[in-house]
Write a structure and sequence with these properties.
Layout: E1 13-16, H1 20-31, E2 36-39, H2 45-62, E3 75-78, E4 92-95, H3 101-114, E5 121-123, H4 130-134, E6 143-147, E7 157-162, H5 168-180, E8 184-189, H6 196-212, H7 218-227, H8 235-242, H9 244-258, H10 267-274
Helix pairs in contact: 1-2, 6-8, 6-9
Bound molecules: nicotinamide-adenine-dinucleotide.
């Protein structure tokens, strides 16, 4: 039987990158009974991730977002992809490392050689076209994109990106995995930023530009977008939740591939990155937070 045809529960999911998204996706999978091997190459990231996963599971339970009667999956940690037990035939590999096309291409190319053909190789990139990454792997038909939102265990909808070379069997296997995780899936075609980042990220850039130009304060921009337009948190609070460093990386990806000036990150966003004010994860961004998460 091929990897693509087997049931997701009981088989490990490999998640590469234990940052904001790797932690959220891991939390979601564990809560739904899927064991996860979480990999991060940076020193000191995994212990922090472990704490955040614990907090995430608690938060998800408080919000009623956990399935009942499911034994949580087991978490395994690895400081290098070479430490993963690839022989165990993972249900899928989800790459959630830094938004850097060259780095992602290198890591995905290495992983393709380790997994069985037909194992979905999933990039959680915000903006890099899937087919660009597919050019770097030996089996482009096994590569596709998911765009989980943050926090992944609370936001029910996932954008699923089918590249021009993505095969039908990995698309179906990924759908099955997302069904197990009780996510609502919307399949879209490949393009820089797909749908959600292409629409949201330039909008957040504009919101920051409005503050930079002195038209309104951070709080007033968010209050207007919430009160008048029904945005759930306001775009600048969303920037803090995404991580302003990641947002800027994603805007550069969009700007360089579309030429759209609206995607060139504004000076206020760039200065926040330079100052280390990356949002919730660093304790300070457009707002300040009592504890980083
Ligand atoms: P992050 O900066 O919080 O975390 C990235 C992690 O990847 C870091 O811990 C880093 O040490 C690790 N990493 C880097 N190189 C690695 C390697 N070779 N092997 C293993 N780990 C490695 O970033 P994030 O916000 O979690 O974003 C991850 C991906 O998800 C990016 O592509 C981003 O664009 C995308 N994304 C982010 C959001 C969001 O709201 N933050 C939403 C959707 C998609």
């Amino acid at each position: 039987m091929t990897s693509a045809a087997q049931e997701p529960q009981g088989r490990q999911l490999v998640v590469l990158g234990a940052g904001v998204m790797g932690v959220g996706i891991t939390t979601l999978a564990l809560a739904h009974g899927v064991p996860v091997t979480l990999v991060d190459t940076a020193a000191d990231v995994l212990p922090v991730a472990r704490d955040r996963i614990r907090q995430g599971l608690r938060m998800a339970q408080l919000k009623g977002a956990l399935p009942e009667g499911v034994t949580p999956g087991e978490l395994t940690e690895a400081a290098d992809p070479a430490e993963v037990d690839w022989e165990a035939d993972p249900v899928a590999v989800i790459e959630a490392i830094t938004e850097d096309a060259e780095l992602k291409a290198k890591v995905l190319a290495e992983v393709t050689t380790a997994v069985a053909p037909g194992t979905p190789l999933i990039s959680n990139t915000s903006s890099i076209p899937i087919d660009e990454l597919a050019g770097a792997v030996s089996r482009p038909e096994d590569l596709l994109g998911t765009h989980f939102m943050n926090p992944s265990y609370l936001i029910p909808t996932v954008e699923l990106i089918r590249g021009p070379r993505t095969g039908e069997s990995v698309l179906q296997a990924t759908r099955k995995l997302l069904d197990t995780l009780r996510r609502e899936v919307i399949v879209v075609n490949d393009a820089p930023g797909f749908v959600t980042s292409r629409v949201l990220h330039p909008m957040i850039n504009d919101a920051a530009r409005v503050v930079e130009e002195g038209t309104a304060s951070v709080e007033d921009v968010d209050a207007l977008m919430q009160g008048c337009l029904g945005h759930p948190t306001g775009p600048l609070r969303t920037a803090d939740l995404i991580g302003i460093d990641n947002l800027v990386d994603s805007l550069w990806v969009l700007y360089r591939r579309t030429g759209d000036e609206g995607c060139r990150p504004c000076e206020l966003l760039l200065s926040k990155v330079r100052d280390g004010h990356h949002g919730r994860k660093s304790g300070r961004g457009f707002y300040t937070y009592e504890r980083a998460m």
